[in-house]
Amino acid sequence: MPVKHVPQEIAPLVHAFNEALARLAQGYDRHNRFLTDAAHELRTPIAILRTRAELLRQEPQSTRLLHDIERLSHLAQQLLDHQLLDRPSDQREIVDLDDLVCRVAADFAPLAIEAGYDLAFEPSPDKTRVEVNVLQIERALANLVCNAIEHGGGGGTITVAIDRTGGIEVRDEGPGIPVEERENVFEPFYRLQPQSRGAGLGLNLARQIALLHEGTIRILAGSWRGARIRMELPVRS
Ligand SMILES: Nc1ncnc2c1ncn2[C@@H]1O[C@H](COP(=O)(O)OP(=O)(O)O)[C@@H](O)[C@H]1O
Ligand SMILES: [Mg+2]
């Protein structure tokens, strides 16, 4: 708050208030940095652990161990992803939506195929340009495609489609998300199967990123098989 035109007897109060706010902001930054560093630091020991576990003889115990390590590594990545939310909005660039989405889909193609899916990409009928923080949108989409792989029933086609209104849909043919859970799944740490690999942060992150871009994200309702998640971003003319 400005102190300039404040009556003299109030000025110390305004000063104290401003200082308290500054301390709060500092504490918040410190906290955030700590979390990011911690997530980052976690990745090295997890990577070492994985390498060691991969050297073990193949038996049920070691397979389970590798599975647990995967979970840990996923959690560290998701914590790290949250740091992306602090990027200021001036770090945005105008890009072609097809290029951006296609790149993410291509990155996940081997993973999807290995997990038993076909992956289809449907580009937009026209050139669609968006002004975005590329890293953020990539991570949001990566989480949607990951979800289709993880929760999509292990077969059928995962489709990533774009339309000219800036809508991006990720569709799978798995069990889908029940109507009454369609908002809950965006809550942090909320999972339909609590024993699943993830931490329940992916959709929450995707929504926060969509909101930062004045966009939306929701689970579509319809009679088709599987889940359809739709993200909409404002289109640049
Ligand atoms: N494509 C999907 N099909 C069915 N269920 C899904 C799908 N995507 C997300 N979910 C459900 O929503 C929950 C939250 O998703 P998310 O926030 O990404 O967390 P997670 O780390 O568990 O993937 C998941 O645990 C899962 O139960
Ligand atoms: Mg997820």
TrEMBL record:
Residues 37-237 form the Histidine kinase domain. One of its GO terms (molecular function) is kinase activity. Keywords: Kinase, Membrane, Phosphoprotein, Transferase, Transmembrane, Transmembrane helix, Two-component regulatory system. It catalyses: ATP + protein L-histidine = ADP + protein N-phospho-L-histidine. It is found in: Membrane. Its EC number is 2.7.13.3. Its main location: membrane. It is a multi-pass membrane protein. SUPFAM superfamilies: ATPase domain of HSP90 chaperone/DNA topoisomerase II/histidine kinase (SSF55874), Homodimeric domain of signal transducing histidine kinase (SSF47384). It holds the Pfam family HATPase_c. This is histidine kinase. The lineage of its organism: Bacteria, Pseudomonadati, Pseudomonadota, Alphaproteobacteria, Hyphomicrobiales.
